[in-house]
Records
---
Amino acid sequence: MALSFAIPVSALNNHQKRIELLSENIANLNTPGFKGKRMTFLETLGSVAGVSQFEFKQGSITFTGRPTDLGIKGNSFFLLDSGEEKVYTRAGAFELNEKGELVNVDGFNVQGWMNNISANSSSLGSKSTKVEDIIIDPNLVMPAKATQNAYLSGNLNSGLESITEVWETGSAYTTKATLLSSGITFPLAVNAGVDDEFGLDLEDSLGNNFSETITLTAGSYADTDAVVTEINSQIASNANLTGKVEALNSGGTLKFRTIDGLADTKITLQSGTTDVLGNLGFVSGASSTSGANATTLTQINDLLQVTTDMVAGDALDIEGKDSAGNTITSTYTYADGNTLQDIVDVIDTAYAGYGDADIIDGKLILTDDLAGDSDTQISISAASGNTGLVTLPSFINSDEGFTGTVSTSVVIYDSLGDNHNLTLDFEKTENPGEWLWSASASGDETITAGSSGKVLFDSSGALVSFSFDNGATSLTLDPGNGSDSLDINIHAASEDGTRSISQFQSVSTLQVTDQDGIKSGRLDSFSIDTDGSILGAFTNGQETVLGQLAVAKFNNPSGLKKIGQSNFTTTDDSGIALIGKADSQDSEIKSESLEISTVDIADQFTQLIEAQNAYQAAAKVINTFEEVADQAARLKR
């Protein structure tokens, strides 16, 4: 009889436990990471035993938006330290405490491996390294790193050429109409009615034509001055010729010259009735028209720009700058018979080593000796107090000097994290495939070595070599602020060799694509990757791995022992924890998300009804046994 009572009593107790288990499951319906239990009934020695087990199936992952909320896809557990023992959980509702420690709702520390970025370390722990508390210090500072390497890429235009600076007068120097004698034999005898006449035709720019006869006074002329005086006397007595033409003694030679200062005035000499023209050293029909472009041989007073002849001692002031920016101040002083070449010579002397002057197509032109950017300037003006009157054409910068240079710049960092701007200039030389490069800094920095060099390309535009001058192998920079000297390797090709600078007939695209220095930065935010890597974003624009979350895996997770709502410890049934990174444990961590409870409320209520019915049935059996026992007792009495 006692055994009969034991069976339903055992069943009643275990069905009560099942109801309690189902109630706990339902109560934790919204507990993140909660794993429901189930109870299995067994017959043992004539009694009923209920065995409860955890159901470690995957729960749904829901997004929360909180960086410290983490969910696991897979069969792993987060590893915690309670202060007394290691604890395991699927509930990833973590937060940072006042110390920056990542903890769960019970205050247990989340475990993993940390990266000491303050020591520029990139070494993280692994499953073979002892785990530690995950700490994300909001005041964490990434130290500065001095630049050691800078990488160039892009194209240098093979067609780039330097341009030479040219200054020229805006208009040409032009000549008066002049006729020069071939020579006179002195004394010159002039006989009236025999050899005393010649014709002078004048056609001015206004379209007026005059044909006049010049009759020389009979007599003997001892020299050119005597002849000039006589001819000018005859011109002065002719109203059509006065002020329009004159005779001159040009270094002992007779010269006829227009003096109206206008272009397109034409003079022609003709034989006279009693002809003297041949004796004066001219042929009949000799003519000249004003306005032709001057040359270096043109006498200065023969220029149309000279309206009153310059005399010895008159001066022209030459001012400006040479291509290097040096101030130029010089003076040309007139002497009888001077030509434009004399002015050119003075300019050449003033700009010696920087530029050369010449007369080309009547224009006075100053050309730099070397192509490239230039500070050249020039102006010529008549000095005050001159007797002669001259109108000088102004200079214009007809070709602006340009250095065929391609420039790029890069911001580099010193050991203190201070930034410095470094400019690299590449200048095309006359040699095919050859460029010269130079580096410069913009502040108090000093480049102590490796400031220049040469780049060579082959005929197909491919890089042959990038070298430094004077045997240097890198650029050395003194930052000038007390930080360590920088030793920077400039690379014309990427580390893997997939990219290098080139030289093609195309637009220049040279740039510094990368440099490995960084300034210091404060931790701005963090995120957690799918493998559990903790990525820190810093105010200097850098991102680095701060640490790595550890996860644990068990051969039999159902054998774990539950402590608290969602925390577990190991047992002999669960086996030891296999600790590693999520991706090595066939798991994936979902940041800003939580795994929701695996409890199915419909299933739980169904099981609750079943448990209630079983409980009531067991209670009914006990009541029946009690009635039978009472009947038996009465029968004995």
---
Amino acid sequence: MGLSRRTILAALGASAVAGSAGCGEEAGDPNAEKINFGYIGDWNGTSLLAVAQKQGLWAKHGLDASIKVFTNGPLQVQALQTGDLDYGYIGPGAFWLPASGQAKIIAINTIGAADRVIAQPGITSVAGLRGRKVGVPEGTSGDMILTLALQKAGLTNADVERVPLDASTLVSAFASKQIDAAGFWYPAIATIKKTIPDLVELAKNDDFTDTVAFPNAFVAGNAVPAARTAKVVAVLREANDYRATHRDAAIAATAELLKLKVEDVTADAANSRTLTTAELDAATKDGTIAKWLTGMGDYFVGAGKLPQQADPASYYLGDVYTGAA
């Protein structure tokens, strides 16, 4: 992916898009195992880590976690490969990275519904994007929703002028009308709406539920010891159970970590479907998650991200997830 170690290290301290920023470190037993964990500054990417930190779950499981914010999943996978991170969080658009052997999925998080293809006022259809400048953070769920929307409209990425942009740059580029449209996501779109309230939403995740799911997940570096990952998964499971039964408290913890208003995080949380740990266990054991991953693999092969379909068992550590019960 061509990113230098210097770029990755700079990203470790980068602010999340739309003014969301935060990092934390839970001080615990000096003998606790230290880990570096990446995240994205929104509800999906932050809530379980916020709960784990607030509820003291890292220390409970013998871990000392330093968490660092990133603007996207691909940067975190790069950091996993260089050893700057042990664990991270990715959206569905980056699932091709573990599928191609660059990381391992250790836990499915939520099913996202925050992605949109948005356009400047006056553009009323995806077909109307032909020949126009469309911004997209490459290798993200924004990339994925754009490609799917174009396919549904009988177009390809070659029919538009794709403009690769990182998330924060895309916000300003759209707001200043330097681009005509974008494959992007909430809550960042809400920031754009403050400048362009009449922007048009041309496509959303729910338009494609018959063919592909949009799960997001936590990932580990390939070299991370299995015993350490088992501890991390135990934390994520416990945090997930807490989030499912204490949603308001989880939202408050996330808002505190990200230094956002509770109402903003509440609105963001509405754009995803939370699964209980029991549901994730069942979906792992009955093959549902494998079907999700296979469907996404088909998409990534068709989009040119993967040379061929990969067996989900080669990159989703389902046995580790259910074994941490």
